Amino acid sequence: MLDLGRYLLGVAEVLLLGGFAWLGGAALRAWLVPRFEGAPAQLASAVIALALLIWAAELLGSFGVFDPVPYLVVVAAAGVGLWRFLPRPSQGEGGRYRWVT
To answer: Which of 27, 55, 53, 51 minimizes the C-alpha distance to 41?
Structure first.
């Protein structure tokens, strides 16, 4: 039987995984297709975030270390790394985007 503490730990893990994947997915989407807005932008971010989760799982599974902690570490590193190190587009004059580092 699953006790309350273990259940809450699982909920926290899922929220952290989703948050880090969304952070990286949104940053990568903004870099790849900066003109997307609204629903298309959110859909693209969600697809990229899901791909990030799948690729991390495949990478860890290839080496036989697919456990919760390494999975969380890899997804967190990828999400924060994408968010921190990708250049961010900013709104320039005349509706054109320019890259800001």
So the answer is: 27
How far is 90 from 93, CA to CA, in rounded Å? 10
DSSP code per residue over 62-75: HTT---HHHHHHHH
pTM of full prediction above 0.85: no
In a domain, 48, yes or no: yes
Q: How many domains does the chain have?
A: 1
Residue 6 resides in a domain: no
The Cα angle at residue 54 between residues 35 and 24, in degrees rounded to 5: 40
Task: Confirm whether 14 is domain-assigned.
Answer: no
Per-residue pLDDT tens listing for the chain (101 residues): 889 999 999 999 999 999 999 999 999 999 999 999 999 999 999 999 999 999 999 999 999 999 999 999 999 999 999 999 998 776 554 445 555 55
Domain of residue 58: give its range.
20-100
Of the candidates 24, 3, 6, the residue with the CA atom closest to the CA atom of residue 14: 6
